[in-house]
Amino acid sequence: MIRGRLIRLRIIMRTRGDSQNVKFKNIWFALALSALCSCGEPIDRYSIAGEIPAPQSAKLEGARVLLVDMSAEGLDNDGVIDETTITDGRFTFEGEAEHVRGIRLRVHQDETYLYGTAFALEPGTTTIRFTDGNPRYAIESGPYTEFLTTWGASPEELAQQRAAAEVRRSASLVYRDPAATEEEKAAAAERAREIGAGLGERKMKRLAEIATSDPDPIKRLLALQYGALVDNSDGVASRTRIVETLNELEAVLGPNPGLIGRRGYNEAWLKRKEEEALIVGHVASDFSATSLAGEAVRLSDVLVQNRYVLVEFWASWCGPCLTQIPYLKEAYEEYGDKGFEILAFSTDDERLEWEEASEEHDIPWINTSDEFGTESPVKSLYDIEAVPANFLIDSETGVIIAQRLKDEQLSDMLASLLDDRS
Q1: pLDDT value, residue 42
Q2: Tens digit of each residue's pLDDT (9 = 90 or more) over 160-181
Q3: pLDDT digits (tens, 9 = 90+) for 53-83
Q4: pTM of the predicted model, to two decimals?
């Protein structure tokens, strides 16, 4: 199949039989064949030009700009397509646009992500002009980028979306203002919630219709890359449907990186759920470790003394682990005298770091480690790839009844298990 510009060939046929005309005819056939063969399988190209006006350009001089596949989670190299830097308020990208798909432009200064936007990687020229208003970017590109920014919404709904974005931006400024009171922050959040009510639901409904029934397979892919068909109330069924839809589209679009990445992400999600199903409902493996006081602690002994035990894997260097400590304390204070206990296991390999973090955060529950760090056999016993990770165990049966509980999920579950019980 020949893509790109349509080559029109005019082959002149002569009816007279003299040698001169036969030669003339042969030359035209040779030219036609040569044109077809040299054309081969041309691939359309894209060109992306970014413009940042002063004074913003001075602040962003030297900042890194990345082109990242919108389905980066399922691709190698974190989905990074290309990278450049901002010089004199400009940046450019050029490359082959063999597959149209959704991508993100991300701006980083040092190691800090500043902001970004999404558009379609498609043949032709894309111009991205940074602005100080709402929206932050003015993008001129092809038809798929235009489609991606509206999703077929009515002019009235688009105006409502812009107004909501401006209110959210104002609310964000209030939250960042150290002089703002809690009442002012709450009022800003409420204004943002009210103006955006229903917009998200209408958009996701429209995306679902596009993903399942639009005649253009590229538009269907873009909708899926944006999260169409995801239903958290029935995650396994919805993710399975997404994978099946992407398989259907692959027959038309071929090995599109956006398609491969989105499918890989959802297949990984389904695999994690399958692994969780193998853990929840099974008897917890017993182990022993040592407390900061040097005392030996065995899980089976802790289970005998309590109704429910949370085994919490954490580390002093793990930011997400430390953010969960206030939620763990809340659950411990509420249910610690009702038969609930936490058995924490640190994956630190340095005792001093484990000890200092424990003292700094005033950890009141059973706190243990074997100081083997990533090589800990206890960590391997529970197949821990990353922390935080936790397992809630029913002491009566020794069975794991939940895992990966975070924020208020632990307190909510303990409320259903222990409230109003003698």
Answers
A1: 57
A2: 877 877 777 777 778 678 888 8
A3: 998 899 899 999 999 988 765 566 678 999 9
A4: 0.58
CA gap 32, 74 in Å, rounded? 44
pLDDT of 20 over the 80 cut: no
SS3 track for the chain: CCCCCCCCCCCCCCCCCCHHHHHHHHHHHHHHHHHHHHHCCCCCEEEEEEECCCCHHHHHCCCEEEEEECCHHHCHHHHEEEEEECECCEEEEEEECCCCEEEEEEEEECCEEEEEEEEEECCEEEEEEECCCCCCEEEECCHHHHHHHHCCCCHHHHHHHHHHHHHHHHHHHHHHCCCCCHHHHHHHHHHHHHHHCCHHHHHHHHHHHHHHHCCCHHHHHHHHHCCCCCCHHHHHHHHHHHHHHHHHHHHHHCCCHHHHHHHHHHHHHHHHHHHHHHHCCCECCCCEEEECCCCEEEHHHHHHCCCEEEEEEECCCCHHHHHHHHHHHHHHHHHCCCCEEEEEEECCCCHHHHHHHHHHCCCCCEEEECCCHHHCHHHHHCCCCCCCEEEEEECCCCEEEEECCCCCHHHHHHHHHHCCCC
Q: Which two tokens stand for residue 320?
A: 């997400």
Give the pairing of strands 340-346 and 366-369: parallel
Give the pLDDT confidence score for residue 112 in this predicted structure.
Answer: 78
% pLDDT > 70, the chain: 83
Res 72: pLDDT: 65
Which candidate, 248, 251, 212, 247, places its Cα nearest to that of 228?
Answer: 212
Read off the pLDDT band of 122 (50, 70, 90): very high
